[in-house]
Structures are given as structure tokens and as C-alpha cells.
Design goal:
Elements lengths: L1 H4 L4 H20 L9 H10 L8 E5 L23 H13 L4 E5 L7 H13 L5 E6 L6 H7 L5 E5 L5 H7 L6 H15 L2 E8 L9 H7 L3 E6 L23 H11 L5 E4 L1 H4 L5 E2 L17 H4 L1 H5 L6 H6 L24
Parallel strand pairs: 1-2, 1-8, 2-3, 3-4, 4-5, 5-6, 6-7
Length: 346
């Protein structure tokens, strides 16, 4: 009655309300024009909260072969298998269909197989249109020629660096006397080709007292992941495995002091064992998901599909978010990915 007295019909009022609701929805959900689209994390968090596991971020360890002998390695060269290219592409397409947005190529050392790696990252961007492609490498085999050819398809290049003292690197099993110089070259190439440069450091018995602040400030990674050295059953837990991490292990207090010493770095992202152990979706060289609770790997996704394979392993999605698994992981509109501080502090 009030609406009629005012001369406003219920039909007109309904239309106004509907228009306002649609406009509000558009404002809240439209993609941001800022670099990296900060809405990404919100949308993906919703997917992670669904009852059906969505493999948003996957680490594909397509080879276990490596040219280094790091004593604490937890993904060791127990096989020499590498999946044929077309089969691997078919598996990655299944993951994309299941909701994968970010793919990280790891090993072993992925740059041992440059042609395969180059074809895979181009396929992921050109055919699957994934949001983010990253590579984790020890850096020794990275060349400017590769980054010039494929850099447009790489969002993040993460280089493992456990010390800025070459003697320590050699003792760890990573050194050749040229690690630090090569790291500087890679950082410069990343700036040239618009790739986000990231550092990964494993904090262990040989480096937990080291002060890395000066070098990190000079290199300016956009993200510096510092992992507490991890024991993984069957990979590095005894004298019977290819690697034995026990002599590299540190206490939580030693790790805490390392973190305290470096927390002033804007790129610093700590990752203790409690967050690392079960928060990664790791796909092995046979395209099986690995389980860090001691169970057998899943069946290959090419045989049973992604959801059936995921159902066979435990993935701690809460820890994935807690450790900063969702962040601004694209090159951004400017294409200048290196340096620039921590815009996504979890």
C-alpha cells in the first residue's frame, strides 16, 4: 500500500533491486587491473574449501635424475624413467580439466632435459592456458638462450641456494665453485626476460648459523622460501637410502633463530617441517600423486583419472594455505617480475 501511495509500482522496485544486486556482484568479483590480480587467492580459496579436492597447484617431478648430490635430498634418483612427451601432455591436460591453475616443474634437475622442459612449458601456456608456470632448479644448467626462447611462458624461476659460501655448498653436495656467480647471472636474466626470480634455501646443520641478509638484499628475489630440512621415509631417512638426512637435521630452535635473523627481508617466507611435510601435491615421474603419510603412491592419473588418484593420498589443504601456497604467482601486466618485495605475506 505504501508503495502504491508513493506512486512506485512493486515491479519497478524489483527491477531496481535486481539491477543494484547485479552491479554489486560485478564490482566485488571483477578481475583487478593491478599486477598479479589479487582476487586470485580469494577465488582459489573457495575452490580449496569444496568437498571435491581441486589440484590448484601441482608439483610435477618429471625426472629423478640430477647432476648434484645434495645430502638431504628427499626426491632421490631411485628410477631413471621419464614419461614420453605426448603422454605427459595428456596427463597435464587432465589436471587442467580438474582445476589446476599453477604447475611447478621440478626434479631431480629439470634442466637436464631442456627440450622436454621447453615443450612442456609452452604447451601449458599456449594450449592449457595455465595461470602460472614455475621451475625449480639448482641453477647450474640454466642458460640465457633457454630463457630467451621460453621466458615468455615462465612466470617464476626458483633457484636453490643453500649458502653463499662455496665451501658450504660443496660440503652439502651442491657446490662446484661457481654457484654464487651463476645465481647472479640468473637473477639478471630474469630481469631481462620478465621472469619472477625466487630463491629456495634448505636450512640445515651446515648453514643455520649463516647470515645471508646481504646477498639476498642484493639479489632481490620476489620470494625467498626457507625450508627446514626435512626427513622423508624411504627417500633420505637411513643409511639404506640414497641420501641420509640425519646428519643435516636441525632443531626447531636452530631453525627459529635462522628465521629470526632473516625476517627483515621483505621476500622472506619460512616453511618449517610442520607446514611442509604434507601440504604439497607432488606428481612423480609416472604421474602418480605421492603420499607423505607413508602410504603407497596413487595409481597414475592416466589410468584412473585425477579425482580417483587424489582420493588415494592425503593432501593437507589447510597447511597448503597456511604456508602461503596461494599467492600472486603470475608475471603480472608489466612483465617485470624480479625483485619488488613481499606483496603476499601469509
Amino acid at each position: 500500500m505504501v508503495l502504491l501511495q508513493l506512486g512506485i509500482s512493486p515491479l519497478l522496485l524489483s527491477a531496481v533491486i535486481a539491477t543494484f544486486t547485479l552491479w554489486t556482484w560485478y564490482i566485488l568479483t571483477r578481475p583487478s587491473k593491478k599486477e598479479g590480480n589479487p582476487m586470485v587467492a580469494i577465488d582459489h580459496s573457495k575452490a580449496l574449501g569444496s568437498k571435491i579436492a581441486t589440484p590448484i597447484s601441482v608439483n610435477y617431478h618429471f625426472t629423478r635424475q640430477c647432476n648434484k648430490t645434495c645430502g638431504f635430498c628427499f626426491h632421490t634418483a631411485t628410477t631413471s624413467y621419464r614419461m614420453p612427451e605426448e603422454e605427459a601432455k595428456r596427463g597435464l591436460a587432465l589436471l587442467a580439466q580438474a582445476g589446476m591453475k599453477k604447475l611447478n616443474f621440478a626434479g631431480g634437475e629439470p634442466f637436464l632435459y631442456r627440450e622436454f622442459l621447453g615443450h612442456m612449458i609452452a604447451y601449458c601456456k599456449e594450449s592449457l592456458h595455465l595461470e602460472s608456470i614455475s621451475i625449480v632448479t639448482n641453477g647450474s644448467l640454466v642458460t640465457e638462450a633457454f630463457l630467451k626462447k621460453y621466458g615468455q611462458h615462465i612466470d617464476i624461476l626458483a633457484v636453490s641456494c643453500d649458502s653463499f659460501d662455496e665451501a658450504t655448498n660443496i660440503a652439502i653436495g651442491r657446490g662446484s665453485g661457481d654457484n654464487v656467480r651463476q645465481l647472479g647471472r640468473i637473477a639478471a636474466w630474469c630481469r631481462t626476460y620478465g621472469i619472477r626470480f625466487k630463491l629456495n634455501t634448505v636450512v640445515c646443520q651446515l648453514n643455520h648459523d649463516e647470515d645471508m641478509n646481504g646477498w639476498v638484499a642484493r639479489l632481490q628475489p620476489f620470494r625467498w622460501k626457507c625450508f627446514q630440512v626435512l626427513l622423508v621415509a624411504g627417500e633420505n631417512d637411513s643409511a639404506a637410502t640414497l641420501r641420509d638426512v640425519r646428519r643435516f637435521q636441525i632443531s626447531d630452535e636452530q631453525y627459529r633463530r635462522f628465521c629470526e635473523r632473516h625476517q627483515g627481508q621483505t621476500s622472506f617466507v619460512p616453511e618449517p617441517n610442520r607446514l611442509m611435510a604434507k601440504s604439497y601435491l607432488i606428481l612423480d615421474e609416472y604421474m602418480r600423486f605421492l603420499d607423505r603419510e607413508g602410504r603407497e603412491p596413487s595409481p597414475p592419473i592416466l589410468e584412473v583419472g585425477v579425482q580417483a588418484a587424489l582420493g588415494k593420498v592425503f593432501w593437507d589443504r589447510e597447511s597448503f594455505v597456511s604456508r602461503g601456497g596461494l599467492y600472486d604467482w603470475t608475471r603480472g601486466e608489466t612483465g617485470k617480475g624480479c625483485g619488488g618485495g613481499r606483496t603476499h605475506d601469509w
